[in-house]
């Protein structure tokens, strides 16, 4: 099984927190091929990293970056690998058990998402893409799919992301999903307006019904994002394999576990 670590970088200098994230990557996963995904012409050369460049406009905004990760061209760049671990520069890992997660044979694993504006916070679905394991061929199969989902299939799909809306607006949103999904995955991905990880969490199965997303219990073992203390309790008071946005959401929780 061939696995690569893909590190998106978009600027020539790393902050101290980003350097901490890189130390964790080198310490626990240093034996895997490491690839810096960066804008053409950036000039950054991280030690022991291969570089794969993409047009600079893909790194100009979050939306443009999401479009890159919804393009077949991105995954074709890694088609010699079975899996890539997408590791943004605000991530941490705490162990070397990456291969164990690959052996579970899911197409996508990311930190659990929480229901928006839920009090108390409640887990919703999988998952966040900042630290995520992606099976390359499965992602290409989705993005190259010729399947046009039937109206009835989209109507019956769970579409959990729509449940945050009041019922009348929810039905309007569902109708729009039905209409737009019928245009095919190429159009849908190119015009998707939310972050790319929500496409993989909520829409990929419209175009490839057997796209396998890890369940919440496996995702909790894989990574935490928001509400790490709640995730820690739900995970049996055990640290996950990794974390995303550790300095943003609850730095004090992660501080004792940081490498000096």
Indicate the topology.
Blueprint (H helix, E strand, L loop, with lengths): L2 E6 L7 H14 L4 E6 L10 E5 L7 H7 L3 H5 L6 E5 L3 E3 L4 H5 L5 E7 L8 E13 H8 L7 H6 L10 H15 L3 H6 L5 H7 L1 H4 L8 H7 E2 L3 H7 L7 E3 L1 H4 L1 H4 L6
Parallel strand pairs: 1-2, 1-4, 2-3, 8-9
Antiparallel strand pairs: 4-7, 5-9, 6-7
Written account of the structure:
- With 260 residues, the chain is α/β, with parallel strands linked by helices.
- It has a single domain (3-147, 207-257), classed as Alpha-Beta Complex (Spore Coat Polysaccharide Biosynthesis Protein SpsA, Chain A), CATH 3.90.550.
- Helix content is 38%, strand content 19%.
- The chain has 14 helices and nine strands.
- The protein has helices spanning 16-29, 62-68, 72-76, 98-102, 136-143, 151-156, 167-181, 185-190, 196-202, 204-207, 216-222, 228-234, 246-249, 251-254; strands spanning 3-8, 34-39, 50-54, 83-87, 91-93, 108-114, 123-135, 223-224, 242-244.
- Strands 3-2-1-4-7-6 form a six-stranded mixed beta sheet. It has a three-stranded mixed beta sheet with strand order 5-9-8.
- α12 (228-234) links the parallel β8 (223-224) and β9.
């Amino acid at each position: 099984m061939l696995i690569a670590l893909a590190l998106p970088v978009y600027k020539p200098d790393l902050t101290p927190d980003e350097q901490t994230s890189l130390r964790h990557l080198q310490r626990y996963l240093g034996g895997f091929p490491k690839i810096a995904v960066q804008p053409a012409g950036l000039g950054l050369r991280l030690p022991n990293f291969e570089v794969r460049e993409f047009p600079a406009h893909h790194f100009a905004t979050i939306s443009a970056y999401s479009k890159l990760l919804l393009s077949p061209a991105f995954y074709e760049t890694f088609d010699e690998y079975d899996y890539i671990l997408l590791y943004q520069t605000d991530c941490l890992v705490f162990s070397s058990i990456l291969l164990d997660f690959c052996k579970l044979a899911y197409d996508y694993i990311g930190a659990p998402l929480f229901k928006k504006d839920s009090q108390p916070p409640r887990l919703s679905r999988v998952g966040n893409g900042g630290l995520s394991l992606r099976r390359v061929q499965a992602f290409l199969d989705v993005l190259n799919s010729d399947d046009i989902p039937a109206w009835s299939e989209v109507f019956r799909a769970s579409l959990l992301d729509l449940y945050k809306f009041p019922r009348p607006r929810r039905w309007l949103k569902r109708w729009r999903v039905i209409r737009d999904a019928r245009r095919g995955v190429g159009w849908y991905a190119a015009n998707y307006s939310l972050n790319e990880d929500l496409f993989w969490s909520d829409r990929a199965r419209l175009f490839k019904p057997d796209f396998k997303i890890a369940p919440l219990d496996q995702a909790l073992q894989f990574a935490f994002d928001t509400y790490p203390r709640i995730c820690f309790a739900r995970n049996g008071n055990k640290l996950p394999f990794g974390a995303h946005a550790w300095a943003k959401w609850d730095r004090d929780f992660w501080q004792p576990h940081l490498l000096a």
